[in-house]
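Regression test case RT-17, inverse folding.

Input:
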């Protein structure tokens, strides 16, 4: 989905919205919402409604502040709450959703997207990193309720230490949603034997006149790619770092520069170089 740049005066920033609030994007408006990282242990529930022809870009940077790297790890049961996002899209509305979650504690993220109007579209891209004792559970469900609706969902994760990430994602196309398209892809990169990532992509299709695909991969760094880089004079450590960054690089064009730099720092210090105990200077 090609979404034009949004003028600053039409940009909305939402910080810690009141529980139960519904955020409305009015008909034919273009807006951008930044849902700041969560803090504390209380559940967060957000409702966002796109009216006819609306366009919305959402960034959820679920990453710790810069100084979190010097704070001792909290037990997995104490760190992060349950996050629930619910989006409703009316006719011809478009949602561009980017989620970035990197931490070493526990969290649950549940997102439900309802394509209720004909011609509505959603493009979801999520990148995730877990290290230490991280426990993350991610669930994305996209419901196609109307004809000519489109959903594209791509998720990529990197895990090390004893981190455990679970993805349970589903595309549902209802009987009344012919000519709809859905894509669901999950790719997990595991950097050591103690880390785990599970992917459960699902399709629920009630109409034969649709186009859908889903898939998932879980594995380590490709030794052929590492060998290729090392044959060009790149050290094993730098090769590892480059391949880990490349795995999640598709999200970078959708992130403000400050978040790009923060993600790079976390990846290099907590993931790519975790085995060697150092980071690129």
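Golden output:
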């Amino acid at each position: 989905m090609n979404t034009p740049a949004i003028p600053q005066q039409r940009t909305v920033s939402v910080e810690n919205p009141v529980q139960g609030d519904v955020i409305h994007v009015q008909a034919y408006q273009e807006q951008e919402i930044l849902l700041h990282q969560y803090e504390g242990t209380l559940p967060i529930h957000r409702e966002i409604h796109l009216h006819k022809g609306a366009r919305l870009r959402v960034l959820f940077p679920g990453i710790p502040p810069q100084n979190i790297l010097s704070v001792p790890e909290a037990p997995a049961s104490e760190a992060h709450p349950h996050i629930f996002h619910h989006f409703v899209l009316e006719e011809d509305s478009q949602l561009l959703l980017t989620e970035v979650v990197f931490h070493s504690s526990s969290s649950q993220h549940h997102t439900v997207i309802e394509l209720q109007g004909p011609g509505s579209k959603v493009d979801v891209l999520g990148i995730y990193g877990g290290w230490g004792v991280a426990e993350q559970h991610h669930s994305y469900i996209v419901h196609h309720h109307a004809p000519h609706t489109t959903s594209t969902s791509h998720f990529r994760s990197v895990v090390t230490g004893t981190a455990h990430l679970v993805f349970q994602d589903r595309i549902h196309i209802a009987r009344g949603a012919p000519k709809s398209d859905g894509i669901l892809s999950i790719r997990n990169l595991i950097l050591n034997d103690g880390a785990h990532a599970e992917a459960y992509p699902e399709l629920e299709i009630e109409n034969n006149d649709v186009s859908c695909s889903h898939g998932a991969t879980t594995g380590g760094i490709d030794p052929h790619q590492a060998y290729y880089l090392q044959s060009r004079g790149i050290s094993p450590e730098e090769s590892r770092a480059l391949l880990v960054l490349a795995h999640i690089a598709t999200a970078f064009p959708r992130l403000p520069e400050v978040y790009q730099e923060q993600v790079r720092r976390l990846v290099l210090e907590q993931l790519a170089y975790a085995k060697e105990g150092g980071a690129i200077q």
